[in-house]
Amino acid sequence: MLASQFVTGLEMDVEAVSTMAAAEAVLADDAEAFFVAVVNVNLKDSNEGEIVDALNRNSIPVIAFSLHEDRELREKVISRFVLDFVQIKTRQHFEHIEKLVERIHRSYKTTILLVEPSMAFRFYISDLLRKHCFTVIEAESIDDVMLTLRENSQIKLVVADGNANGIELIESIRSHFTPQSLGIVAMSASDDPEVNVDLLKAGASDFIRKPFAMEEFFCRINQNVEILGYIEEIRNSMIRDYLTGAYNRRYLYEAGEQFYMNARRGHISMAVAMIDADHFKQINDTYGHDVGDEVLIRIASTLKKTLRASDIVARFGGEEFVCIVNCITLESVGELFERVREAIENLRIRTKQGELTVTVSVGVTYKLGRSLDEMLNAADEAMYAAKTGGRNRVVVNRP
Question: pTM of the predicted model, to two decimals?
Answer without folding.
Answer: 0.65
